[in-house]
Amino acid sequence: MGRLSRSFHPREVSRLWHEAAMRAPLLCVVALAACASTAPAGRKDSVNDPIVQSGHPVLRQRAADVPPEEIRTPEFQALVARMVAAMRAAPGVGLAAPQLGVPKRVFVVEDPAALQASLTPVERSERERAPLPLRVLVNPTVTPVGDEKVTFWEGCLSVSGYSALVARFREVEVSALDEHGAPFTWRVRGWPARILQHESDHLDGTLYVDRMVSRSFGTTPQVKARFGGQPIAAALEAFAAPR
Fold first, then answer.
1. Among residues 63, 69, 132, 167, which one has the fewest Cβ atoms lying within 10 Å of its Cβ?
2. Does 19 participate in catalysis according to the annotation?
3. Could you tell me the residue ranges of all domains in the chain?
4. In the β-sheet with 149-155, what is the strand arrangement from edge to edge?
């Protein structure tokens, strides 16, 4: 172990850690969350906040609605910031407050182009995946548009290391409040629609394993080794999954 060439005051060390965390590469939707002092023990994906893992009761209960007057408070804004930081550090494309041990109805999503760089053109086209800017959704209501469903691989930061096939509605509309408390409606299809449904499930105590094609469940490295880069049809055929 090497030594630092200069000494640092404890407050300066804390500041450097904070700045490093905020510069971490973006990826998942697993965000800046609530109070580190109250978050349960779990996987440590950011400096301050562990991501709660399957088995903890907070992931299996309905999260509480957020009073509109609470949204602009420093405490709630700090929670959102922590959620974003945790999501980006994981990295992930979405994170719900219960994943930080906070039973509130809020989640964040973000799917930057950098996270899609390793996908083949076929994978990107099949998934209808395009860059998704950072969004904060408070008290969201997600409604399917039409009956069409599509099946693809999913994973979850709270079920670390595993993946499975999950059928989701291809298109949805969400109504929510943003980080300032302003109401908005957003209609999306393809991969963004899948992200919204996955994160909305977290607010109702549902995990993707409750919806998965059970025979497809496996470790993420095994799934990538067997099906990575292939059209989704190969996996659907292998597990007789719905198309």
1. 69
2. no
3. 25-238
4. 149-155, 162-169, 218-219
Query: In this predicted model, what pLDDT tens digit does every residue of 24-78 receive, in sequence order?
Result: 332 233 332 222 223 333 444 445 589 999 999 999 999 999 999 999 999 999 9
Q: Which of 110, 154, 179, 199 is catalytic?
A: 199
Has domain 25-238 been given CATH number 3.40.190.10?
no
Q: What is the model's pTM? A: 0.80
Cβ of 239: how many Cβ atoms within 10 Å? 16
